[in-house]
């Protein structure tokens, strides 16, 4: 009898406990299969690592794979919102998928924390109080490279990117900051993997530097072929073409290339050291910038949970906006449009202990905010 | 825009076309001889690249890797011929498309399970790094020249095999009348397996050669497969000669188009719109050419069954 009573009390106690601390349900939609899955896998792993290290058990994480398809992402978002009743959505890698999911979800009152995609539309007129981008606005890293090109004294840069929205944005972002003249501008085919013709154009143009944005396999192919061409004009690009998930496949051909990133694994801070060591130990590989963004997204949510109950939307939003967490990238705060104001660094590809990786060599832009913030009506 | 640059771009187009030929040759052989639409040809290309990357990593020798890529793809080809493809010869094309599409999915996920989703490292051998001076071109990558020569060698070997050997005679006979050569006592089953494995081996060689230049990753075969289909439709289905001419044509039109269209358009419009319109137009160019050729010659330039 005694046992039964104490068991009953224990059950009651645990019951009240769960009422007092409402769990936060997070739905993660990310790319885990097909092309570009390395990005989603890194975001997921970084996010899970942060949860594990925090020891917080009041957060429930549901993960689904969007296979890089907007319609799949849309369906998953509906399922998360209507069936699972998640409080927060996160995880989307690609801007076109984000545009399919985010506006509808935030309108319905679901919070969205973006660990990667930052399309300009969501930073400007269509900004929303339920949308928080913890990575960057899409143009940021390209702008930083434009600013780096000025500092490096380049006067005649050849620029190229694939012919799709993120590609044209990249070249625009670069030119927004770059003060020199262009030796040439080329739009390549999306998915193109032979760049002999483009490299010949670069050689003939007499450029003093090359800026390119070719994510994933396109970048691997370009860098390998560029190295073989015997052309020794310096190359630069955003971190997306030199992230840790693809560097091993490029090999020595990437050595010495300058690239811009808001994060580097060698940034000196306790939280970054804990992140990098924890990631290596848990997953057996070096983290990429995508993993750092997943890690920061989780820590941002955890920091808000410590301050406010998720059922009180206004208080929780205010807690998110304070961004009172230690970002692995160092200083971090949200601008009026809930997009980061942050330093962006220049990294160089180096070989450390036989492994090809990035090393921070300088700051490209300090306290940088995107240009769309002024179009956003939020304060 | 100097003459030397135009000449260099022509060589680039030629090289791009010849890499396409390696892919299209196997496809057209299988299609022509066995009447089979093999969408999984791109997967065999991927298998070749992955085998090459893996063997190269294990042994440190690209040349062993190249051999591994060819053998691996040929073995994979022979295996799927015996298990799946063999049951499809008498079915209509839609069934073949369905079954070989399923093979693409199986190969892609299988490769991901074995090698993971990160792209693999495969670089060109040290002996072939660097550049050479060609007439009119100050520095042309040696490895690209090697690919041109390898593709020409494959074209010559295929020509010799099909027109000069007994096996080639049987392949040609099988192409024109399958029942008759079976009745004459030729083991048609084995012949088909050999032809399919041969096509797979060339795809594997192409994947290994090109993988070192581009990137070795899951799904690398499908974009090339689409172009290879365009090549064999233009060249005439089943014709090796058609595949050669078709692929060179595509290589030249695609390369020259994407470089010179924006330049030409700049005479008519402002710079930035010329760049984007030129890029959009040049990616359509080969399909426009295909439509044009098919309008005049509905069966392609060199129709094998004529």
Automatic annotation (TrEMBL), chain A:
It comes from the Bacteria. The keyword Transport applies. CDD domains: PBP1_Nba-like (cd06359). The keyword Transport applies. Keywords: Amino-acid transport, Signal, Transport. Residues 24-352 form the Leucine-binding protein domain. InterPro entries: BCAA_transport, Leu-bd, Peripla_BP_I. GO terms for biological process: amino acid transport. Residues 1-22 form the signal peptide. Belongs to the leucine-binding protein family. This is Leucine-, isoleucine-, valine-, threonine-, and alanine-binding protein. It comes from Pseudovibrio axinellae. The lineage of its organism: Bacteria, Pseudomonadati, Pseudomonadota, Alphaproteobacteria, Hyphomicrobiales.
From TrEMBL, chain B:
It comes from the Bacteria. InterPro entries: ABC_transp_permease (IPR001851), BCAA_transport_permease (IPR052157). One of its GO terms (molecular function) is transmembrane transporter activity. One of its GO terms (cellular component) is plasma membrane. The chain crosses the membrane at residues 20-41, 61-85, 97-122, 142-162, 190-213, 225-253, 274-296. GO terms for biological process: amino acid transport. It holds the Pfam family BPD_transp_2. Keywords: Amino-acid transport, Cell membrane, Membrane, Transmembrane, Transmembrane helix, Transport. It is found in: Cell membrane. It is a multi-pass membrane protein. Belongs to the binding-protein-dependent transport system permease family. LivHM subfamily. This is High-affinity branched-chain amino acid transport system permease protein LivH.
